[in-house]
Design brief:
Elements: H1 2-15, H2 18-87, H3 114-137, H4 143-171, H5 186-221
Helix pairs in contact: 2-4, 3-4, 4-5
Transmembrane segments: 20-42
Keywords: Membrane, Transmembrane, Transmembrane helix
């Protein structure tokens, strides 16, 4: 019986067209490999996009937190200036300084593009330079004027931090920042302080220019110009 079954199986195998069968099997294997590779590539792209978005979100959150710290320093500097005026000493102004800034160490910078990283990494360097400039004349400048400068620089740093955070979220598809009730007017507050400080600076320059002009006119009137001695 088994010999008859073996003969039938041999006859069936002899009727199969092996080249066509191999071609079908090879094509099926190639298609399967392409599908597997495509799915693997898609999964890697989705993972990379998610990691890039997470890294951008960490950057944005740290910048927004720094803006809040700068806003607090703005008010502290104003208080320190008032105290320096009231107490007539420089001790109160010593608590005023542009806050330092560093990014969290856990940020995966390699997930972000080189151009984005270049812009973001430049921000702490600018903050450090601003702190150095303030420190260089903090001991010699009028404490009230120094506190006003600290408040002004803190407002500008907070404004720039929020701008960077907003651009970072937008470029990497992160959800927009939704500030709470305490931060709802943060941007408007910063812009108001910056505009007020700039107007005050312009007015101060005008006053100094006016004093210099009046001094020159007085000197001319009394004949004290060089080469034009007053006649007794």
């Amino acid at each position: 019986m088994w010999q008859a079954q073996w003969q039938q199986a041999s006859a069936l195998l002899s009727q199969v067209e092996w080249p066509n069968w191999l071609a079908i099997a090879g094509t099926s294997s190639a298609i399967s490999a392409i599908v597997v590779l495509a799915m693997q590539g898609l999964k890697e792209r989705i993972t990379a996009r998610r990691e890039r978005r997470d890294a951008a979100l960490e950057v944005a959150i740290s910048l927004e937190g720094y803006a809040r710290v700068c806003r607090a320093m703005m008010h502290r500097a104003e208080w320190a200036g008032d105290e320096a005026t009231r107490l007539e000493n420089r001790e109160a102004a010593q608590s005023a300084m542009l806050p330092a800034f560093v990014y969290p160490e856990k940020i995966q910078w390699r997930r972000l593009s080189h151009r984005v990283v270049s812009d973001l990494r430049d921000f702490p360097a600018r903050i450090h330079a601003g702190r150095e400039d303030l420190t260089s004349f903090s001991e010699f400048r009028d404490p009230v004027a120094f506190c006003e400068e600290v408040s002004f620089e803190s407002a500008k740093a907070a404004r720039d931090a929020l701008t960077l955070a907003r651009e970072t979220r937008k470029k990497h598809g992160c959800v927009p920042w939704r500030p709470g009730a305490t931060d709802a007017d943060l941007s408007r507050e910063l812009l108001t302080l910056i505009a007020r400080a700039e107007e005050k600076r312009i007015e101060s320059v005008k006053q100094r220019t006016s004093v210099a002009v009046r001094t020159g006119e007085s000197a001319t009137l009394f004949g004290s110009e060089p080469g034009n001695p007053r006649i007794a």
